[in-house]
Amino acid sequence: MSWYILKRLLLMIPTIFGVMLITFVITQFVPGGPVERMMAQIEGRTGGGEATSGSTGLYQGNKGLDQQRIEQLRKLYGFDKPPLVRFLSMMRDYLTFDFGESYYHHMKVVDLVISKLPVSMSLGLWSFLIVYSVCIPLGIAKAVRDGSRFDVITSTIILVGYAIPGFVLGIVLIVLFGGGSFFNIFPLRGLVSDNWSELSLIGKILDYLWHMVLPIISSTVGSLAVMTLLTKNSFLEEIRKQYVMTARAKGLNERQVLYKHVFRNAIIPIITGFPGSFITAFFTGSLLIETIFSLDGMGLLAYESVMNRDYPVVLGTLYFFTIIGLVSRLLSDLSYVMVDPRISFERVR
Predict the structure, then answer these.
(1) Cα–Cα dist 223/63, whole Å
(2) Contact 119, 297 (CB under 8 A)
(3) So where are the chain's domains?
(4) 76 pLDDT exceeds 70?
(5) Helix 201-239 vs helix 149-163: crossing angle, to nearest 10
(6) pTM of the model
(7) Buried b (16+ CB within 10 A) or exposed e, 191-218
(8) Model confidence over 81-121: pLDDT tens digits?
(9) What does the longest C-alpha to C-alpha distance in the chain come to?
(10) Which of 49, 126, 183, 316 is 20 to 30 A (C-alpha) from 340?
């Protein structure tokens, strides 16, 4: 086991290096970088058609920047160095999690990400808890009642929910319950109200939950179908195996067969994805959900960073989330061994 873990950790190094190298190369060919954007802003401020105050009185608004000013901008953003030198310097800083400063927000990337995490953590963690707490019991109930009216009705409901995009559902919920054309029950923006600091502890908790109802519903409904059907199919496959018939022949009732024999085998495919889903739940963001409900989270930050060519944010968050993804994959693989003693990595060399 220790050799397998060490090998996976060592393989993460070239994987991270390759991901960062490819992304860095792509950013070198994308037009409209930070230098070009700053040049456009400066020229825009001086290009409004005003006449200069010189003795000639000639129009010079669209003359542009001289080469010396352009070189100063390139040096300001670090583009005066060769690409290879910039990449190696960047990776050296990233080893100590020094991601630099955002071009657009003018603050450290780490502080910027931390400021956006509460929204992403709220959406991701609540969605994770709701999906697992609802889908596992529902999937088991559907497997036990396979083909019944309950199974058909619940399958229809969750598949309809799966077919509706989250942002469309969010708009519908706003129209129905957010002061649109019908009821004004839930707020439309932010995690908390403006007077949140003045509320009591219970009031703060209720205010936070009140704000999260519509975003959580919009981001969760589409995920229910996948986990529910995965749970149902996993339990159905185990229920139809020979050892279940043997357990019934020994006189065990259906509840004992289900939870004593079937459950521990059928739950393996579901529980192995638990570590990775739990970790990524803290850092995932949804651009459309955050935009609809005016939530300033990681999804919106990622979109703005790409559109504004904010390379420190783009590359810094990519580096961090790549590490998170690789570690969560490793934990998911290790969870197989923890829940199923028949699986061993000792022979994997």
Answers:
(1) 55
(2) yes
(3) 116-308
(4) no
(5) 120
(6) 0.72
(7) bbbeeeeeeeeeeeeebeeebbebbbbb
(8) 888 888 888 899 898 888 888 888 888 989 988 888 888 88
(9) 107
(10) 126
